[in-house]
Amino acid sequence: MSEELPQVLIVIDVQEGFITPHSQHVVTPLENLQYEFDHVIFTRFYNPEPSPFRKILGYDRMPPKSPETELALLPRDDAVVISRPLYSCVTETLLVRLKTWGVREVFIAGIATEACILKSVLDLFELNIRPWVLEDLCASDKGAEFHDPAIKLMGKLIGPQHIIKSTGPEASAGRV
């Protein structure tokens, strides 16, 4: 009999600076959902000087240690928090943690669907780590016009079966 692998939730960038009327609906459900998983990782984006966000995009929000970079929810006591200055949360720190736990698939939720979530999901997929995107717990701080196409694109790139809801048939089948 094989041992069941731990279930891991990665919550991407649910930070004060990314909470808008378009994204605030994910905060409380994610704060509650984290307790349903064996492990949870929260990621935080920060934008140091210099960065491509500043130099190329002229985006100067989210400077290191600013109130904008603070998490907008309370992580559980054993949560891992990883900060990084990139779109992708797939850092060496994250990969070492997943390897230590023996993880080959993860559940992904958070903000922003069209940026950090999309890039992270594709990076995990290319490293042969199966991403399950919790569509209803992902959001764009810019609105559905960015969120919806990103979900559709991820379905095309990683398979539509990997885009699931946090409740419903997938949840009752033991996925979440």
Automatic annotation (TrEMBL):
Against InterPro entries, the record matches this protein to: Isochorismatase-like_dom, Isochorismatase-like_hydrls, Isochorismatase-like_sf
Molecular function terms from GO: hydrolase activity
Source organism, top-level taxon: Bacteria
UniProt keywords, alphabetically? Hydrolase
Database matches in Gene3D superfamilies: Isochorismatase-like
| Ranges where the Isochorismatase-like domain occurs | 8-155
Q: What is this protein called?
A: Nicotinamidase-related amidase
Organism, as annotated:
Asticcacaulis taihuensis
Its organism's taxonomic lineage begins at:
Bacteria, Pseudomonadati, Pseudomonadota, Alphaproteobacteria, Caulobacterales
